[in-house]
Design goal:
276 residues, alpha/beta, Rossmann fold, 9 helices, 7 strands
Length: 276
């Protein structure tokens, strides 16, 4: 499949979006930015909320594909997750359907399977068809996004690659992240592969670098043409010295794939419960 020429990048002002605005154009993409906040260096960006269907139609019109990174990226009250991640993703797919866009790359998350037990040292890699076990409303919204992508492929012929991103930062900041980290450069390689691979239908892949401590199966991502080049192990000595090795049996934050998302009450929980 030829590389799409114009790609709508939602969430362009976010952490990953900011990285991709620099890293994707060398692959031949012309990016159109969309975000609820101003996008530095992108004067033509569409600044609007995902609930603004007219703005979404304007942003999608004339594009060849969409990289959908927008939405809430941490746990939040359900009402907020519902509006941004669930209703917002639906609005995006409806805009794509109306404007004839046939390829979307959806930023799913490892938190869609966050309550998957952390595998033992000699356990097989976690496959993409492992039962979904979201660890938060945020993770639940990513399960919805994957199902929505499947529906729009089956009903409307819109192809999607749902990328269950581990963490995409310039460097990992925890021992857990050594297993799920995706370097920004590998992120661009994976998104490029997802935008250009042929006949993807709806494909779910994990998104990380080729880490020595990898816990999930990257074969479906490699089947798209993804060739990760980075490994988090160069950061391991310092992180392990500071935090100790991963301890799935002794540390509740290490027991499941979702890490602290499975154990830490959301910061808004007490405040929210008092309003009920």
């Amino acid at each position: 499949m030829p590389a799409p020429r114009t790609v709508l990048l939602t969430g362009a002002a976010g952490i990953v979006g900011t990285l991709m605005r620099e890293l994707l154009p060398p692959y031949g993409y012309e990016l159109r930015s969309f975000d609820v906040d101003e996008v530095p260096g992108a004067p033509d960006a569409v600044v609007a909320d995902l609930s603004d269907r007219e703005a979404l139609r304007r942003a999608v019109a004339g594009t060849d594909a969409i990289l959908h990174l927008a939405g809430i990226s941490l746990e939040a009250p359900f009402e907020e997750v519902l509006k941004a991640n669930i209703e917002g993703t639906y609005n995006l797919y409806e805009a794509a359907r109306a404007e004839g866009v046939r390829r979307i790359v959806f930023a799913s998350s490892n938190h869609a399977v966050g309550y998957t037990p952390w595998p033992g040292q000699d356990a097989p890699l976690i496959p993409v068809d492992t039962p979904r076990r979201p660890d938060t409303f945020y993770g639940l919204s990513k399960c919805f996004g994957e199902d929505l992508a499947q529906l729009y492929w089956d009903r409307h012929g819109i192809e999607t690659v749902s990328v269950r991103i581990g963490s995409c930062f310039p460097r990992p900041n925890s021992v857990r992240m050594l297993s799920v980290w995706m370097s920004p450069e590998d992120g661009a390689r994976l998104f490029h592969a997802a935008l250009t691979a042929e006949d993807v239908g709806h494909t779910v892949v994990y998104g990380s670098s080729a880490n020595t401590r990898l816990v999930w199966d990257l074969a479906p991502a490699r089947a798209l043409g993804y060739e990760p080049r980075d490994d988090s192990e160069r950061f391991a000595e310092k992180l392990v010295a500071e935090q100790g090795e991963l301890d799935p049996e002794g540390n509740p934050d290490h027991a499941y794939l979702g890490g602290a998302f499975t154990t830490t009450p959301p910061r808004w929980a007490d405040r929210h419960s008092r309003t009920l």
